[in-house]
C-alpha cells in the first residue's frame, strides 16, 4: 500500500515515462457512447427492487418566521397518497451542506423562502405534487431581511472567519494619497443560482435498518457522514451511490434535502421512494452564490508600476452559516504593489443561504480586479497587456511566498498573438458595422490549485482486466476517462481493459469532485496504486521495476515478453494508493492561469451585446486529456459570458423569494449566444502540485472572462459598467 505526502517536489512522475502515449490525447469519454444512448442511470433512473413511490417536497411560501401548524388532512385523503409527513424532527431546514455535521433540522421555523417543511409520498408524481400543494401551513411571519444591498451598511468584518483571512501589507491609504495615478472603483455582482442540467434527485431504499440512497452528488463519503448524522444512523448503516451526474458545480457538493426527505418517507411507508426536486424548487433548495460588492483600489507610479493593490469586499449570508464567498481568493497574488489590502465584510440576508458555486472566489472576484486593471491601463495610456506584464510580481506579495509554476505572461502573449490583439484600437467608438459597435478587451484568469486526501484501490484480475475503485465522482468532467488513462498508461494496458468504478461510498474515500482538485487527488491515488502494481508485476517477472517495460498489455524484460494476463492468472494483484497534501501547499503559491481575449459587437440601437470571438490560453500543469480539458475550459467560459451579460437571481424584497426561478427567466447562454471558442493549453509540468504534475482546470475558465467581456464593451462603446450583469439598459 503506497502512501505519498506532497512534502517535496516530485522527481520523476509515473506519467513522465509515457510509453503508451495516451496521456494528454484527446480521447473520447470512455462512457460517452453509453451516456448519449441513455444507457447509464442518473439519480432518478436507478432500478430498485420493490414498488417505487414518489415523493414531492413541501416547501415554505414565506421567507422568514415560525410555523404554527400543519393541516395534512385534505392531502392525505387525495388519490394515491401514501403519506404526508410533517412530524419528523429530522426534516432539514438547511437545504444542503458540506460538513460532516448533521443538516440543520426542524420545520417549526422558516429561515428562507422555499425551504423544505416536509414531504408527501404518493403512487405517482402528479398525485404527490397535487397533495403537496394541498397541505395547509399556518405561519407566523417574521421580519426577514430580504433586500440585497439594504443591510450592506451594517456589514461586519469577517477578520479570520472567512476562507481568506483579512490581510493588509504596508499602508494602502498612504499609497493612494501620494501616487500620481490612482483608481478607486466599486463593482457589484448579484446573487447567482445553481442550474445543473440534471436536477437534484434521490431514491431511498431501506433493507431493515440499512439505507441506500441513489443520488447525484459530488462527494459521496462526505454526504454519507452527513446523512448518517442527520438521520441518527450507525455509520455502517448508510450507503450513497452516485455513479453518473448531470453537472454539479458545487451545488451537489454536500448532502441535499432530497436525500433526507426520501429516506424519511421510504422508512415511513416501507417502500423505496424517489424524490426529484423540481427546477423551480431548485432555485431555493440549492445554495446560491453571494451577491458581492468589491471596492478596488489601485495606485501607480509615473511609470505605471503598481504601488497599491487592494480589494475590499462585502458579501451576504443567511444567519448561522459558516461559508462566505471568498472574493479575494485569486486576487491575493495576481499583481505587484507593495501596499495591499484584502478584506471581507458580511451582512445578513434571510434568503437561501450561500455556498459553493463554480470557482468560489475567482468567479466573481476576478471581475473587479480585471475591470479595474483595464481602466487603470487606460488612465496610464498603456496597453492592457503591457500594463499587466509590467506588474507581474516575482512572488506572491500578500503571503510572501514563491510561485510554483506561473505562466500568466506567456498566456497573455500567446493569447494576444492568436487573437490578433494588435488590431485593437485603444480608443472606444472607433469601429462600426451598421448598428453594431465593435470592441476588444482582455483579462487574466486564475484559479487556486489544491490537493486533498484521496485513496484508490486497483486490481489486475486473472485475464488482465484492470479494475479501479474509488468514491471519486464524475460530474460530467471526464473522471472515468482520465483515471482510465492514468491506470492504462502506467500499467501499459489499453484503456479498454481498464474499468473505473466511481461514486459509491463503499469504495475507498477520495473526497470527490470539488474545488478543481478531483483529478489531482484521485488521479494521484490511482497512479500510486498503479505504481505498486508495477512493482508486483516486476517481482513476478523476476526483474526490477527499472528493467521492466509495460506496453500493449505485455510485460517486457530482457528478451521475455509476457501477457500481463498470464502474470495474474494464478493470483490477482490488488493495491491501494493514498495521496496526502503536504508542505508544498503552504510553501508555494499554486494556481492555474490563463488569459481571455474577447471581441464584441454592441448594438447602438438596443444596447445588445453579441460575443463575436473568444481566444483563451491557459497554463495548468500537465493536461491529461486535451478533449475533456477543452470541454472544462469552454464550459467555464460560456458560464462566465452568462455571468457577464445575463445571470442574476432577482430577490423579491417583499417575500425573500427569487422571482426568476426557472430557466426561462434566469438567463444562461444558449448555443446561438456563443461563437467558436479558441482554447489553448500551454505545455507545463508543475512538480510542486502532485505526483501527476497537473493542476485543477474545472474552475479556471470562468475566472476573468466576464471582465474581458466588460472591457470589450467599453472598447466598443465608451461605457464602463460597474454593476453586473451588463444588461442592455446599462450600456445604452
Ligand atoms: Mo466546486 S464550487 O468546489 O464544485
Question: What does this molecule look like?
Answer:
The strands form 8 sheets. Strands 4-7-2-16-12-13-14 form a 7-stranded mixed beta sheet, sandwiched between helices. Strands 9, 10, 11, 17, 18 and 19 form a 6-stranded mixed beta sheet that branches. Helices cover 24% and strands 26% of the residues. It has a domain of 168 residues: Aldehyde Oxidoreductase, domain 4 (2-Layer Sandwich). It is built from 17 helices and 33 strands. With 732 residues, it is an alpha+beta fold. Dioxothiomolybdenum(VI) ion (MOS) binds next to loops.
What is the fold's blueprint, element by element?
Elements: E1 2-6, H1 32-36, E2 53-59, E3 65-71, H2 73-76, E4 81-85, E5 96-97, E6 109-110, E7 116-122, H3 125-134, E8 136-141, E9 156-157, E10 167-169, H4 172-178, E11 181-189, E12 201-207, E13 210-215, H5 220-231, E14 238-241, E15 255-256, H6 257-269, E16 273-276, H7 279-285, E17 292-300, E18 306-317, E19 339-348, H8 362-380, H9 384-390, H10 408-419, E20 432-433, E21 436-448, E22 454-460, E23 466-469, H11 479-491, E24 498-501, H12 518-541, E25 549-551, E26 554-557, E27 560-563, H13 564-567, E28 573-581, H14 584-587, E29 591-603, E30 609-619, H15 626-645, E31 651-652, E32 657-658, E33 677-681, H16 705-717, H17 728-731
The structure holds dioxothiomolybdenum(VI) ion (MOS).
Residues 218, 248-250, 253, 356-358, 360, 514-515 line the site of dioxothiomolybdenum(VI) ion (MOS).
GO molecular function: iron ion binding; oxidoreductase activity
Domain Aldehyde oxidase/xanthine dehydrogenase a/b hammerhead: 37-143
Organism: Lutibaculum baratangense AMV1
Amino acid at each position: 500500500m503506497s502512501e505519498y505526502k506532497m512534502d517535496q517536489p516530485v522527481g520523476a512522475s509515473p506519467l513522465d515515462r509515457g510509453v503508451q502515449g495516451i496521456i494528454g490525447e484527446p480521447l473520447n469519454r470512455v462512457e460517452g457512447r453509453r451516456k448519449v444512448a441513455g444507457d447509464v442511470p442518473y439519480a432518478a433512473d436507478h432500478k430498485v427492487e420493490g414498488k417505487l413511490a414518489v415523493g414531492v417536497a413541501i416547501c415554505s411560501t414565506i421567507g422568514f418566521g415560525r410555523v404554527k401548524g400543519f393541516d395534512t388532512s385534505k392531502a392525505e385523503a387525495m388519490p394515491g397518497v401514501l403519506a404526508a409527513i410533517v412530524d419528523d424532527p429530522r426534516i432539514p431546514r438547511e437545504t444542503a451542506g458540506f460538513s460532516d455535521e448533521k443538516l440543520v433540522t426542524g420545520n417549526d421555523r422558516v429561515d428562507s423562502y422555499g425551504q423544505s417543511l416536509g414531504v408527501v409520498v404518493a403512487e405517482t408524481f402528479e398525485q404527490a405534487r397535487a397533495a403537496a400543494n394541498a397541505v395547509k401551513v399556518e405561519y407566523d411571519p417574521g421580519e426577514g431581511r430580504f433586500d440585497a444591498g439594504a443591510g450592506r451598511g451594517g456589514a461586519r468584518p469577517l477578520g479570520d472567519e472567512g476562507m481568506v483571512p483579512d490581510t493588509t501589507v504596508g499602508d494602502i491609504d498612504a499609497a493612494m494619497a501620494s501616487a500620481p495615478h490612482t483608481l478607486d472603483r466599486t463593482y457589484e455582482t448579484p446573487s447567482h443560482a445553481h442550474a445543473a442540467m440534471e436536477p437534484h434527485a434521490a431514491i431511498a431504499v431501506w433493507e431493515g435498518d440499512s439505507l441506500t440512497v441513489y443520488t447525484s452528488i459530488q462527494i459521496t463519503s462526505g454526504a454519507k457522514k452527513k446523512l448518517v448524522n442527520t438521520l441518527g444512523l450507525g455509520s455502517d448503516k448508510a450507503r450513497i451511490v452516485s455513479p453518473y451526474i448531470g453537472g454539479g458545480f458545487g451545488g451537489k457538493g454536500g448532502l441535499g434535502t432530497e436525500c433526507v426527505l426520501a429516506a424519511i418517507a421510504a422508512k415511513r411507508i416501507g417502500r423505496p421512494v424517489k424524490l426529484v426536486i423540481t427546477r423551480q424548487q431548485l432555485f431555493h433548495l440549492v445554495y446560491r452564490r453571494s451577491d458581492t460588492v468589491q471596492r478596488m483600489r489601485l495606485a501607480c507610479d509615473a511609470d505605471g508600476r503598481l504601488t497599491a493593490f487592494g480589494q475590499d469586499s462585502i458579501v451576504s449570508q443567511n444567519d448561522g452559516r459558516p461559508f462566505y464567498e471568498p472574493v479575494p481568493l485569486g486576487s491575493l497574488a495576481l499583481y505587484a504593489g507593495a501596499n495591499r489590502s484584502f478584506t471581507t465584510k458580511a451582512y445578513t440576508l434571510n434568503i437561501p443561504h450561500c455556498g459553493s458555486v463554480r470557482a468560489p472566489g475567482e468567479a466573481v472576484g476576478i471581475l473587479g480586479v480585471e475591470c479595474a486593471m483595464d481602466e487603470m491601463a487606460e488612465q496610464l495610456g498603456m496597453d492592457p497587456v503591457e500594463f499587466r506584464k509590467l506588474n507581474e510580481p516575482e512572488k506572491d506579495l500578500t503571503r510572501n511566498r514563491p510561485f510554483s509554476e506561473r505562466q500568466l505572461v506567456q498566456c497573455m502573449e500567446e493569447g494576444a498573438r492568436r487573437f490578433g490583439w494588435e488590431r485593437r484600437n485603444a480608443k472606444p467608438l472607433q469601429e462600426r458595422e451598421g448598428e453594431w459597435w465593435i470592441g476588444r478587451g482582455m483579462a487574466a484568469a486564475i484559479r487556486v490549485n489544491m490537493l486533498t486526501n484521496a485513496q484508490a484501490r486497483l486490481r489486475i484480475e486473472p485475464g488482465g482486466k484492470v479494475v479501479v475503485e474509488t468514491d471519486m465522482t464524475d460530474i460530467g468532467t471526464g473522471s472515468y476517462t482520465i483515471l482510465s488513462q492514468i491506470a492504462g498508461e502506467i500499467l501499459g494496458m489499453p484503456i479498454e481493459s481498464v474499468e473505473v468504478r466511481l461514486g459509491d461510498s463503499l469504495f475507498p474515500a477520495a473526497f470527490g469532485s470539488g474545488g478543481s482538485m478531483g483529478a489531482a487527488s484521485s488521479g494521484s491515488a490511482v497512479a500510486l496504486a498503479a505504481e505498486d502494481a508495477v512493482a508486483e508485476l516486476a517481482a513476478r517477472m523476476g526483474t526490477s521495476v527499472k528493467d521492466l517495460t509495460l506496453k500493449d498489455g505485455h510485460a517486457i524484460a530482457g528478451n521475455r515478453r509476457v501477457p500481463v494476463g498470464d502474470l495474474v492468472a494464478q493470483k490477482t494483484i490488488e493495491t491501494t494508493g493514498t495521496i496526502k497534501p503536504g508542505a508544498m501547499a503552504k510553501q508555494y503559491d499554486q494556481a492555474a492561469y490563463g488569459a481571455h481575449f474577447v471581441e464584441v459587437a454592441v448594438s447602438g440601437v438596443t444596447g445588445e451585446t453579441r460575443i463575436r470571438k473568444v481566444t483563451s490560453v491557459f497554463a495548468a500543469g500537465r493536461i491529461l486529456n486535451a478533449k475533456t480539458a477543452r470541454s472544462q475550459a469552454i464550459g467555464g467560459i460560456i458560464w462566465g459570458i452568462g455571468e457577464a451579460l445575463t445571470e442574476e437571481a432577482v430577490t423579491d424584497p417583499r417575500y425573500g423569494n427569487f422571482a426568476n426561478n426557472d430557466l426561462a427567466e434566469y438567463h444562461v447562454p444558449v448555443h446561438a449566444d456563443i461563437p467558436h471558442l479558441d482554447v489553448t493549453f500551454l505545455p507545463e509540468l508543475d512538480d510542486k502540485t502532485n505526483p501527476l504534475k497537473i493542476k485543477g482546470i474545472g474552475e479556471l475558465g470562468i475566472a476573468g472572462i466576464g471582465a474581458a467581456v466588460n472591457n470589450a464593451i467599453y472598447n466598443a462603446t465608451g461605457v464602463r459598467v460597474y454593476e453586473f450583469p451588463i444588461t442592455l439598459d446599462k450600456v445604452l
